[in-house]
Automatic annotation (TrEMBL):
InterPro entries: KIB1-4_b-propeller. It comes from Handroanthus impetiginosus. Residues 36-297 form the KIB1-4 beta-propeller domain. It comes from the Eukaryota. This is KIB1-4 beta-propeller domain-containing protein. PANTHER family: DUF295 DOMAIN-CONTAINING PROTEIN.
Amino acid sequence: MEKGCKNSFSRLPRDPDQTHPWLLVSHGDDYQFHTFYDISKNEYIKRNIPEFRYKQVAATSYGWLLLIDYTIHPLQCCLVNITSKERIELPHIEYESLSTSSFFYECVLSKPPNDPYCYVLLVASCKDYLLFCRVGEEKFIKRPKQFEDDFFETATNFKGKIYAWMSVSGKLVEVDFVGPELLLNELVNDKGQLCQIPWPSPSNTYACEDHLVDSCGELLLVHMNGYIHSREVSYFRIFKIKICEREWEELRSIGDRAIFLCPIGSMSFLCTDKSRLKKNSIYYTRFGTTTNIYVYDIEDRSKTLKKPCPTKGDIRPLMSWIVL
């Protein structure tokens, strides 16, 4: 990585004692402004990070960040490690619309990106397609999220393997890459039963959204139920996926942990006394025109609203949880 990029990362608001993620708020008409919000101190810090300007910045596996540049078409895409200062170029992303809301991607890596067998999976948040490639290849392979009668909603890396959640059937599958093909392998237990959570019938009133989260060594499915018109969250349900047993268990509590959700990446951390975070809770953001953060208490299902910072520009701000 060139010297200028190294210097830009020295401006990041790092705290060696911090045990929770920052919320990065990218705003301005071209995402040229960035504000870092510390949820434990309820304060925000403005920083000029040239490497982040005009880009989607999203956390991904193994401590790497995904950067997508909106100013160059087709979109330039790379992975950056802010600790080692390594930068790995990815293929350009072709786009079908001038709306930047089409370009938000959840990124999952199969292995550390400096591994020659690492695959990069991009899940488009606002479109019905996936992109994937092996690091070093010149082009992303594009395929629909629709797999026959099922729909690929979200994915995460858990203990070195990529798992995906299929929203129609309620199945957890293991993702594999074979040449130009993306394969979904069903998880079946010793009784011949699929790892599947039965959902209620779809409703015209409620909207659902699911997130797979690696939470302190456990794989969790966080199911959000909300109202279609207002986009407000009604409640969450949390399921622990037992990979070895190919079974699931609904949790009523996550103890001393907190979950951090956003549309382009989610994570979980233990809450310490120093962090001053709310235990047994979910911190979440929503796509929209505000930078509101909500804190959901898992025990009593209450919600608390936080407003982290003002923004500039007419387009919706982009918020992502990142670890510095």
